[in-house]
Design a protein that fits this description.
The complex is a heterodimer of chains A (about 500) and B (about 425). With about 500 residues, chain A is an alpha+beta fold. Chain A has four domains: about 60 residues; about 230 residues, Beta Barrel (Thrombin, subunit H), CATH 2.40.10; about 100 residues, Pdz3 Domain; about 100 residues, PDZ domain (Pdz3 Domain), CATH 2.30.42.10. Chain A is built from ten helices and 29 strands. In chain A, the strands form six sheets. In chain A, strands 23, 24, 25, 26, 27, 28 and 29 form a seven-stranded antiparallel sheet that branches. Chain A has a six-stranded antiparallel β-barrel with strand order 1-2-3-6-5-4. In chain A, strands 7-8-9-14-11-10 form a six-stranded antiparallel β-barrel. Chain A is globular and about 75 Å long. Chain A starts with 18 loop residues before the first helix and ends with a strand. Chain B is an alpha+beta fold and about 425 residues long. Chain B starts with a helix and ends with a strand. In chain B, the strands form six sheets. In chain B, strands 23, 24, 25, 26, 27, 28 and 29 form a seven-stranded antiparallel sheet that branches. Classes of the chains: A alpha+beta (about 500), B alpha+beta (about 425). Chains A and B meet through strand 16, helix 5, strand 17, strand 28 and strand 29 of A and strand 17, strand 28 and strand 29 of B.
Chain lengths: ~500, ~425
């Protein structure tokens, strides 16, 4: 059914349904035939070879320019505006079309996680190489994959081709080592997001914990698909991995080590099997909720040496640094310094580097829903324990907190949420005050020394018990243009200070 | 110059110090030069705490006759940046030298503009005299890491002078035209011209006498960080020249336990009125608290909002944030005991553990992955309650190397490491 859609492909010589299998074997034959020809073959056989070659060429028909033209339709550029207190910041990202409804996925890094969803405005979808855009709708972020989902306007859906049109029939295939792969990059907005070709060969395949291919060079822009020689979808490009370089000054001095990231193109891609099963995770609402929550804070990987020392049969584990107050982990009886060894009775996989085991556990949590069971086998001292947690709903995140901007005073305050209390080691019953979300440069509060992320405890000697109280107090001060000054008690780290804000 | 000034020159000495440092996962020795002044004929020399500290393993004093004699540390006080040495008098007598002590003048009587001289060994240039005036006789200056990583300046104000003070002048006397010691040159502003600071003789004399008598200075601590009220009195509706603003309260400290909070205004301590309007008024108030006996219950009368309340705060012994240091050389690991202050500042549950202050490349600690800033809390699952615990384990390892399990904490994250032979 996938291949049946390919009506306008020039590969008409092969029966559509079998095309994938055939063309691959033909490619192999093509390669085999090439070498004796180059070496010079006897005349008589040469004719036969030539005839075969012509046939092969017709069957192969999968010439890159043709594949390219089709597949360029499954990529788009998405531009949106982030509205802040004082500015409108345009950002553009690249995305892949995943279905016939014009749904587009953008990579995790396309949107700053601290941004509240209401700050995201005016999504626009650009076809590669076209100057005009059509509006798009932001659908939210999926916690498990990290993808942001955007839906393109009906008007341009006909011009789009979902990437699923190019997937292998049946089980997807992982690329072989050294196999040729290619993909697309898009130029910047001033060049109408013009598409261009990137190609390379697979150099390495690793579990991080997802199966990830790493090509020898950049093979696609982050968020865009990667194909094999026949144009079959092989995976989705990730954010570029850093590469170490030595920077040497022309004038003098020792070389210094730097890590460079290519933000426009990437050599790493998630294999198709890590992408295709999750394309249906379109958020039900823009907040991305429900979000599963365990509440084991600061997981740190256990290395093999430690496992050996502790006489453990399995070599992978993660140390729990803290168990958060009121969390499902606490209710299940998890304790700080427990070592998680298995989930649902399955030992944690041994992955390299060690750090990856932490992402494995996090993903196992995010894959589930609040209310789902989460069984852990942990080591406490020398004792092995089976703990059964029921995942809860993630407490309100900073980006979801209520906010209020005061232009004359020069600050945005936001509600203190669970994560703020954890960060500041505040117990649930001591959770008062508000957090400074933004300080306008050279404003009265900036001059008084207030900074981003400060914790305001009192305003004019009155405790800021709730967000509403504090906002009412600040609004009253903001409105009163006769008032010469006011005072705030703010904490930063383990210190507090009384700040005087001069209004005149 | 006056006769007194010439006599003073004979009392100024050069001090050569060899110090032990534990930073890089091993023991290393460093050498430095400072100045000092002889203040008694039985060989008491006053200098800076950042010149001679308990880390000093070798102290040599060059007298005005250019002869060198040995000396030992009597005591130090990093809070006021002062240290007292005693010259090896047996050696002085054996070699037939005579010490020429200087005398203190009265720093409280100094006035801005008064001519003063700094004498010392800037950059190793022995017996250098520079001249200037008292630029300010009551300068507030506090630094939480000012004396080799130790705190300084909370309990005294400083004399500011434009007499040139360079590295090596440290510990040398600041004197009047008559050669009376009115300060101990201590520090300068880096990158500024002629902004030098000296500890006033009033402080120096008191600290010296107590160090000679007790070898150490015990202060009381309650855990409030005062801030200058400046012109906040109106906001707090206070009478003129009253009150001390509590800028911050150390978490877990006696003041925090007693219920004092940031933003409170202290009106009296043990019935004595306090006035902390300007920064330079803060050290005397801090001193008032510090001079109470350890364990004493102090009554703080505090204004909070509209009401005034009394709080009873039981003092603790003041401790530095810098704990005792050691190098565990087989592991290539330098550690510092977690102090009470460090634990509170970093929101640790208690003082269990040692802080990693250095690792040596290629040694077991480095191979295992430990880095500076880790706090080692347990060794083979036993909590490290004192430096001795880890020293003993290291000794056992030296005798019979075996894999050792460490539990560390860093930014509230717990990790496990194995030290392998």
């Amino acid at each position: 059914m996938i291949i049946g859609i390919r009506t306008n492909t020039p590969r008409r010589c092969a029966p559509p349904l079998l095309l994938e299998g055939i063309s691959r074997s033909v490619v192999r034959r093509c390669a085999f035939l090439k070498s004796p020809l180059a070496r010079g073959v006897p005349e008589g056989r040469g004719v036969l070879v030539l005839a075969l070659l012509l046939l092969a060429a017709r069957l192969c028909a999968a010439d890159l320019p043709t594949l390219w033209a089709e597949r360029a339709k499954c990529v788009v550029a998405v531009e949106y505006i982030t509205v802040t207190e004082v500015a409108r910041q345009p950002t553009s990202a690249m995305g892949t079309v995943i279905d016939a409804n014009g749904t587009i996925i953008l990579p995790t890094g396309a949107i700053d996680p601290r941004t509240a969803t209401w700050q995201l405005k005016e999504f626009k979808v650009y076809l590669p190489g076209e100057a005009d855009s059509t509006p798009g709708v932001y659908l939210g972020q999926d916690a498990y994959t990290g993808w942001h989902f955007v839906r393109a306007d009906e008007k341009i859906r006909a011009k789009l081709a979902p990437v699923t049109k190019f997937v292998a029939k049946g089980k997807s295939r992982a690329p072989a080592l050294a196999e040729f792969v290619w993909g697309l990059g898009l130029r910047n907005k001033d060049e109408d997001f013009g598409p261009y070709l990137l190609q390379s060969n697979v150099g390495l395949i690793q579990s991080l914990p997802q199966r990830t291919g790493v090509a020898q060079q950049e093979v696609a822009a982050p968020g865009l698909p990667v194909f094999d020689r026949d144009g079959v979808f092989m995976g989705l490009a990730l954010a570029g991995f850093g590469q170490s370089y030595l920077q040497v000054s022309r004038s003098s001095g020792r070389p210094s080590a730097v890590v460079l990231y290519n933000v426009e193109e990437s050599a790493a891609f998630l294999l198709a099997d890590e992408v295709l099963p999750y394309l249906g995770r379109i958020p039900k609402n823009v907040s991305g909720r429900p979000l599963a929550w365990l509440g084991a804070y600061g997981l740190e990987p256990m290395d093999r040496e430690v496992a050996k020392f502790l006489n453990l049969k399995t070599r992978a584990g993660a140390v729990v640094s803290e168990v958060l107050e009121g969390s499902p982990a606490e209710q299940a009886g998890l304790k700080a310094r427990d070592i998680i060894l298995a989930l649902d009775g399955k030992p944690l996989p041994e992955l390299k580097p060690d750090r990856v085991v932490v992402s494995y556990i996090e993903r196992e949590t995010q894959r589930r829903m609040p209310g789902d069971a989460f069984a852990m086998t942990v080591l406490r001292g020398t004792e092995r324990l089976e703990l059964k947690a029921t995942l809860g709903e993630e407490p309100k995140l900073p980006r979801e907190a209520e906010r209020k901007y005061f232009d004359r005073l020069g600050l945005t305050v936001r509600e203190l949420v669970y994560a703020d209390a954890i960060e500041r080691r505040v117990k649930a019953n001591e959770r008062t005050g508000i957090i400074v979300h933004y300080v306008k440069p050279s404003s009265p509060v900036a001059i008084a020394g207030l900074r981003f992320d400060d914790w305001i405890r009192e305003i004019d000697g009155v405790e800021a018990k709730t967000f509403a109280d504090a906002v009412a107090k600040l609004a009253e001060i903001e409105k009163d243009d006769k008032r010469p000054e006011f005072v705030m008690l703010a904490s930063r780290g383990s210190e507090s200070a009384v700040l005087r804000v001069k209004l005149k | 110059m006056s006769r007194g000034f010439n006599q003073l020159l004979d009392a100024v000495v050069r001090i050569d110090v060899r110090e032990i440092a534990f930073e890089a996962g091993t023991r290393r020795y460093t050498a430095s030069i400072g100045s000092g002044v002889i203040l008694s004929d039985d060989g008491i020399v006053l200098t800076n705490a950042h010149v001679a500290s308990p880390r000093a393993v070798d102290l040599n004093i060059t007298l005005s006759n250019l002869e060198r004699v040995g000396a030992r540390l009597v005591g130090w006080d990093h809070w006021t940046d002062l240290a007292v040495l005693r010259i090896d008098m047996a050696e002085v007598q054996r070699r037939g030298f005579k010490l020429q002590p200087a005398a203190f003048g009265e720093s409280r009587e100094l006035y801005p503009g008064q001519v003063v001289y700094a004498v010392g060994t800037p950059h190793g240039l022995t017996r250098t005299v520079t001249r200037g005036i008292v630029s300010n006789n009551n300068r507030y200056f506090e630094d939480t890491r000012g004396v080799g990583g130790y705190e300084t300046g909370a309990f005294n104000t400083w004399l500011q002078t434009d007499a040139a003070i360079n590295p090596g002048n440290s510990g040398g006397p600041l004197v009047t035209e008559d050669g009376e010691v009115i300060g101990i040159s201590s520090r300068g502003y880096m990158g500024a011209n002629n902004l030098g600071f000296a500890i006033p003789s009033a402080t120096a004399k008191d600290v010296m006498e107590r160090l000679v008598r007790d070898g150490t200075i015990v202060r009381s601590y309650v855990g409030i960080v005062p801030g200058a009220l400046q012109d906040l009195e109106n906001f707090y509706s206070l009478a003129a020249n009253t009150g001390l603003l509590i800028q911050s309260v150390d978490s877990g400290s006696p003041a925090a336990r007693a219920g004092l909070r940031s933003g409170d205004i202290v009106l009296t301590i043990e019935g004595a009125k306090v006035d902390g309007r300007f920064p330079e008024q803060l050290p005397p108030i801090q001193n008032l608290i510090a001079s109470q006996p350890v364990g004493a219950s102090l009554r703080f009368s505090v204004k909070r909002g509209g009401e005034t309340r009394d709080f009873s705060v039981v003092t603790e012994k003041l401790e530095s944030r810098v704990g005792e240091e050691w190098a565990l050389e087989k592991w290539g690991l330098s550690v510092r005991k977690v102090s009470r202050t460090y634990a509170r500042e970093n929101q640790l549950d208690d003082t269990t553990g040692v802080l990693v202050i250095g690792v040596q490349s290629g040694f077991p600690a480095d191979v295992a992955g430990l880095t500076r800033g880790d706090i080692i809390t347990k060794l083979n699952q036993q909590p490290i309650t004192s430096l001795e615990v880890i020293k003993d384990a290291h000794r056992a390892y030296e005798a019979k190397p075996a894999p050792t399990l460490l539990e560390t904490q860093r930014n509230r994250r717990v990790s496990l490491y194995i030290l392998k032979p």
